[in-house]
Amino acid sequence: SFRSGEYPRLASYRVESRTVVVSRLLDRSSVPRYVIEWLVFHEMLHGRHRVRIHNGRRVFHPPAFRTDEQRFKDHRRAKAWVRRHLSQLFPF
Predict the structure, then answer these.
(1) Distance between CA atoms of 84 and 9, rounded to whole angstroms?
(2) DSSP bridge partners of 59
């Protein structure tokens, strides 16, 4: 079980190669295209917003990141879909 707002790694941004990797578990027809597009958009933002250190902790999603993320028109819808279907995507 995951805490509120916590998700298993559905996608990641690799800084070294500047690539986005999406989990194979999302490679199914039941996953809407807008969810994949949002994940790629979100991960691409990591290339624009560097990790910061605040009070000794790494901050991956500062306010400016969240502001930019909201530019994706379906971001709320995609997040809601992931929350609703998380247990089906990751049944372990």
Answers:
(1) 16
(2) 52
